[in-house]
Each structure stands twice: as C-alpha cells, then as structure tokens.
User: Which sequence fits this backbone?
C-alpha cells in the first residue's frame, strides 16, 4: 500500500527544476489561508452587528432569545465550520507541503469552508470597500477550486482531458461574476434559473469526471484511498450551489410585514423562524462533510500517509509520558527504599535510569498494541490473524490444507478482490512440466 | 436480532404510515376549505377619476397601509417562503404584467378588500379585510382610484400556497382564510361626518385594531401594539403628546418607536383634525389595565 501511495505521490512532487514553484506554492497557501482568516476575522464584528440589526426580533421575543445570543449562535456556527476546514487543511499542508495535489486540496478546503460567511460579508453594511475587495479573492479561489479539484483529484491530471477547457471556462465565469458583477459577462446579471443551471451543470461535470476516473483510470488502491475523499469532494460542490441559493434567499425574503404578522399570529411565524434556524444549522453542519470525509480518507485509508504520523505521534507521546512518570516515580520510590541503607541519592537516579531504559522497548510494544487495538482495529486484527497463522504452521503438514489456510489469511488481512497462489514445481514436477502446468490455486 | 429489526421496521413503518395519513387528511380537509366558493353580492362602488380629498388624508394613509404588504410600488412581493409553512405572496395591484390592476372591476376590488374574496370567488389568504370592511363606500372608491392610478409595474409572482404546517395552523382556526372571518353580506357602508369628533375618530381607528386589538388594549404578543385605553401607557399623555408621537416617532418619555412595529411614517400623515379625532375617540374607551411593552427600536 505504501509503495502504491508513494508512486502516486511522486507524480505530484516537485522536481529539481521546480524548487522555486515549491516555495511559491507554500507562499500561496499561507497567503490564501491568512487572507481568508483575516478577512473573516475583520468582518466578524460588523457581521455580528448586522445580524443584530436585521434579524426579525418578534420570533426571538416569543422564544425568549436575545438578539445577541442569536447573532452569537449564527457566528459560532460559521466559526466552527471554518475552523474545521482550516484544521484539516493545515494538517494536510503541514504533512505534504511538497505535494501539489495535497496543497491544492488544502487550499480548496480553506476557501470552500469559508465561502458562505465570506459571501455574507457582502450584505454587511458599513464594511470598508478595501475589505470587500479582499473578500472577493478567497471567494473566487473557493468557487473555482471547488469544481477544479473534481477534475484533477487525486493525481493532478485533468481527466477526461476536456475538463481542462471546462475548468478555464468556469474560472472565467467566476472571475466576471465576482470581480465585475455588473458586467454583461457576469453570471450575476443573468436570470437566476440560468445561474442555477450553470452552477449545477458544472458541479455535474465535476462529479462525472470523478466517476469516469474511478471507473476507467484509478487503480484499486487509489479507489480505496479516494473513496471517502470523493464523498467529501461531492459535498464540496454544494458550496457554490449554497452561495447562489443564499444570495437569492436574501433577495426574496424581506422581513414579514407587521400587518401580516399580526393577521396570521405570532405562532405561525415563530415556527417558520424555528424551521429556518434548524435549516441553517443543518446546512452549516452539512458543509462539514467535506473536511470530515477527507479526515476519514486520511486517517482510515492512509490518503497521503498521514495516519502513520498520527499513529507514531500517539505511540511516542504516550510512551514519553509513561516513561517520565515511571522515571520520576521510581526515583522517589528508590530514594525511599534506599534511604534506609545509604544517604546517596545518585544510586536511586542510576537505578531509576536503568530501569526506565529497560522499560522502553516492552512499554512501546504494549502502548503500540493498545493503540492499534483501540484506533487501528484492521491492523490489529491482521496482526492477530498472521500471528495465529504462524503458530499453526508448526503443526500443519498437509500442503493442500496449508494452501487453503494461506489464501483465507490473505483474504482476511489484505481483503483483495482476487487471490491466486502460484507454487513453483518441484524437481520431479519440473521434469514433467511439458505435460503439466505449475499449480495455481485461486479463490 | 432479526425479530427486533422486524418489529422496529413494523413500528417505524406504522409511524410513517400514520404520518402520511395525517398529512393526507390535513391536505384534503384544508384543500376543501381553501377551494370553497363564496357567493358575495356585488357592491356598487363608484370609483372617481379625480378623487377629491380636501383636507382628509385617511384614504392616502390606507393606500400606504396596503404598501406594507404589497410593496412600496404596490407591485406585490413574496412575504414568506418556507417549505413547511408555505409561500405567502401579496398580489401585484398595478396594471403591469402579472398585476391585477387592469382586469379587476370595481366589484372585484370591493370583494377583495371588504370581504377577502378573490376574483375566482375563493378566499384570499391573510387579507386584513375585517379592519378594512369598515371603510365607507366613498373612501373605498377613492382608495381604489389611487391604487389604479399607480404606475404599472411588470412583476409576475408565484401563487400563494400553504405548506403542511401552514395547513395545520389553518385547522387551529387562525384567521388565515379571510373570507371565513368576514361579513359576506355587508354591502353599503357609510361614514360619519368628517370632523374632530369621537365618532369620526372611531371610523379612522379601525385600522389600529389590527395590532392594538379590538378593544385597543394591546397585548404582550411580539409586534403587537401597546394599550391605547386611558388605563394604558397613553393615560398620562396629552393630545399634543399623542400628535407629536405620531408625527416624530418619539414618545413623551423619549423612547423611539420601531418603524416596523408602529409605522408612524404612515399614520403620521393623517391631518391634525384626523389625529385629534382619533385622540378624542381613544379618550372615550373604557380603561383596560393590561401590561404592554412599548415597541421601541
């Protein structure tokens, strides 16, 4: 598995001629992430005040919720979503800063997770034009990368090739829509139905590209690794659709006139408000699918091998902590015990150090065993099956039985789609090879 | 385990079936009410081409009141759009594309405003006809004339529809279907002689009852009006305080009224005599002691 991943990743590594690009890409990631977080952070107070001013207070009064609490809830939802995206993005970037695809996915995660709150900043009154201009940059990056990532994930190549043209067209559409919203080329000036058709069509081409790649290009290991990531990538396309739906909802939903409110009764609109709040919460939390599925792909299926670093971090952090405790505890213990015979504390330190050093290897094995059993069940199960198989080898003398058991063990541990066992003919069989093929056992 | 899953499936399936039956029942019961045909005798409303208002501002204020729901240019709007509640749309009243202004006869206008019945003889939804039904024939003619003279605006809107929860509220006897709560036999309505009198003030104050209640004592409901009876917040006010508040939106104790809850921008347009008449009428109300909050901004 590691070898396959290595080949896949080497395709995206920078060669010697691209060292400058490497630095530039790292700089780009930092710039986009910082810009996104700074613009969001700078806009938070204004957005908080905007929500406080524009929210319909009547249902809040009915529900006995203060406008500040409501605004804080909405902002907190945004912050949770953004931080979840940024955390997994930062993790991927720190692990694979030289992998172009990993950096691209990381940038997509940062900007995609921030698209909705960044777009909502447009509706905030009193925000400086400078901030509004900066705001457009991560929105543009997020809208473009959300679709393009579907064309190129996971090897960085456009598959099918026609998607290259689609990506360029999408980028141009987004550029005009975001930076020159009033121009005739801007999607923003088109009928809303056409806008929806365009966005859904492009998201559809991205999904088609991934299905096409999955069926025709990806190797089994890539399929396994990308399975969860693909689910998240499809969820990522919801971002651009939601941006459009969100802007449109702002346009067509003025506050309910008080005449109508009094006519229909407060319960009618309070329920409507509750439904909207629940919808808002579900939509925001649904956008966590993108980082969550990537996290599963990374942690469970070793996409970009990040689970190795996590596993080692867990093992060695636990090991270090345990050793420190043992070392300090043993010093105290030995000093107490040895104080009856000698006043020198050096002996206690020496004994403690030796005892702790002797514990390193067995303790590491125990911790690794515990962590594998708790967090890496597949690996734990596979190791147990292999250990049991090794033990049974000593007692097994029937070759056919052994072959069957070997195939079963391979299936249980590696879970391949097909297993074949080829046995080299013995000397006698070699002489008879002209009339009989080598033994092949399949399951 | 299989037995457990089987029973779980049966219970969940049963619940889904019950929910579907309940939804279907609500739909068919309410659909019958929504599609009920109302036979309303035609009113004979004269619509003047050049309405003479004189010093009276009341008809203009009523048209502004209409703008609260039908939009500033009376071209209609989607007021609420929710999957469960439904979509509440106010009609385009102008003669533009998608509007009713060009095709409505005087009788159609009268039925819609006074009885809450549409041109298709079905009930309108959430039209405040109870409050508007007290408007005299003469003023109604002037109001329709003003609306008809509004510049045409092309605005094609979707139809109003009630969602499952909206229909459920309909079953709770909320005044959703207007025609169910109006006097369908009401024909000619006259008004008292305009002047600074309590009678004329009462005529003008009917619109206020929408938020302040039938006895004008207000309520604690969100967005509802305060207590206008002598025992309420206005008990210590003078006529000048009342007029100043409606003109400036600032109460004598320095509170600013929320324009959306108490649209003084609309009611402040009433003439001095009209405001004085309303004040006189309010002073004649029986005191009702109910605690209400002033809708401040």
Assistant:
């Amino acid at each position: 598995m590691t070898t396959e991943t290595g080949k896949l990743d080497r395709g995206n590594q920078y060669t010697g001629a691209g060292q400058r690009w490497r630095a530039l890409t790292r700089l780009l990631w930092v710039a986009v992430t910082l810009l996104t977080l700074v613009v969001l952070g700078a806009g938070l107070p204004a957005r908080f005040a905007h929500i406080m001013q524009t929210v319909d207070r009547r249902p809040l009064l009915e529900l006995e919720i203060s406008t500040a609490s409501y605004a804080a809830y909405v902002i907190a939802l945004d912050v949770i979503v953004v931080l979840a995206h940024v955390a997994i993005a930062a993790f991927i970037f720190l692990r694979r800063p030289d992998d172009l695809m990993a950096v691209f996915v990381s940038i997509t995660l940062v900007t995609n997770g921030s698209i909705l709150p960044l777009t909502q900043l447009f509706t905030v009154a009193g925000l400086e034009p400078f901030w509004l201009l900066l705001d457009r940059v991560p929105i543009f990056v997020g809208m473009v990368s959300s679709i393009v990532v579907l064309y190129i994930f996971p090897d960085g190549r456009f598959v099918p090739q026609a998607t290259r043209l689609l990506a360029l067209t999408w980028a141009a559409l987004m550029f005009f829509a975001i930076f020159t919203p009033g121009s005739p080329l801007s999607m923003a000036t088109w009928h809303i139905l056409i806008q929806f058709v365009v966005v859904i069509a492009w998201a559809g081409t991205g999904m088609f590209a991934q299905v096409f790649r999955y069926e025709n290009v990806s190797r089994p290991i890539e399929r396994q690794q990308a399975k969860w990531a693909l689910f998240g990538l499809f969820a990522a396309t919801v971002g651009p659709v939601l941006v459009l739906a969100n802007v449109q909802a702002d346009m067509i939903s003025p506050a309910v006139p008080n005449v109508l409110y009094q006519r229909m009764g407060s319960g009618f609109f309070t329920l409507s408000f509750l439904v909207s709040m629940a919808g808002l919460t579900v939509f925001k939390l649904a956008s966590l699918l993108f980082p969550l599925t990537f996290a599963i792909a990374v942690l469970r299926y070793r996409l970009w091998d990040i689970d190795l670093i996590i596993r080692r971090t867990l093992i060695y952090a636990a090991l270090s902590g345990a050793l420190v405790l043992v070392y300090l505890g043993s010093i105290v213990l030995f000093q107490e015990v040895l104080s009856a015979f000698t006043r020198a504390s050096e002996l206690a330190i020496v004994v403690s150090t030796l005892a702790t050093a002797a514990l390193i290897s067995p303790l590491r094995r125990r911790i690794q065993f515990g962590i594998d059993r708790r967090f890496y069940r597949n690996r734990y199960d596979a190791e147990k099956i292999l250990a049991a198989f090794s033990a049974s080898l000593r007692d097994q003398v029937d070759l056919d039985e052994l072959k069957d058991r070997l195939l079963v063990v391979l299936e249980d541990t590696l879970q391949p789609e097909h297993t074949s066992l080829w046995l080299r003919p013995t000397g006698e069989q070699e002489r008879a090879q002209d009339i009989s093929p080598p033994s092949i056992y399949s399951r | 385990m299989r037995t457990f899953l089987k029973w779980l499936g049966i219970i969940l399936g049963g619940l889904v079936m019950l929910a579907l039956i309940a939804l279907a029942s609500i739909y068919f019961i309410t659909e019958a009410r929504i599609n009920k045909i109302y036979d309303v005798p035609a009113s004979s409303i004269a619509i003047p081409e050049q309405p003479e208002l004189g010093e009276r501002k009341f008809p203009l204020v009523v048209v502004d009141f209409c703008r609260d729901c039908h939009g500033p240019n009376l071209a209609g709007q989607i007021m609420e759009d929710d999957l469960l509640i439904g979509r509440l749309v106010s009609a385009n009243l102008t003669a533009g594309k998608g509007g009713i202004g060009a095709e409505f006869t005087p009788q159609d206008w009268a039925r819609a405003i006074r009885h809450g019945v549409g041109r298709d003889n079905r009930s309108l939804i959430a039209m405040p006809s109870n409050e508007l039904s007290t408007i005299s024939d003469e003023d109604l003619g002037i109001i329709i004339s003003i609306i008809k003279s509004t510049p045409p605006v092309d605005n094609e809107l979707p139809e109003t529809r009630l969602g499952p929860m909206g229909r459920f509220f309909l079953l709770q006897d909320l005044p959703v279907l207007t025609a169910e709560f109006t006097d369908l036999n009401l024909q000619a309505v006259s008004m008292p002689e305009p002047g600074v009198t309590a009678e004329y003030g009462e005529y003008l104050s009917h619109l206020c009852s929408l938020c302040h209640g039938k006895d004008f004592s207000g309520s604690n409901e969100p967005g509802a009006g305060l207590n206008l009876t002598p025992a309420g917040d206005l008990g210590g006010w003078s006529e000048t305080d009342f007029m100043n508040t409606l003109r400036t939106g600032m109460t004598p104790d320095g509170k600013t009224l929320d324009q959306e809850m108490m649209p003084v921008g609309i009611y402040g347009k009433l003439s001095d005599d009209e405001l004085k008449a309303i004040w006189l009428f309010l002073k004649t109300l029986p005191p009702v002691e109910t605690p209400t909050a002033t809708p401040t901004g």
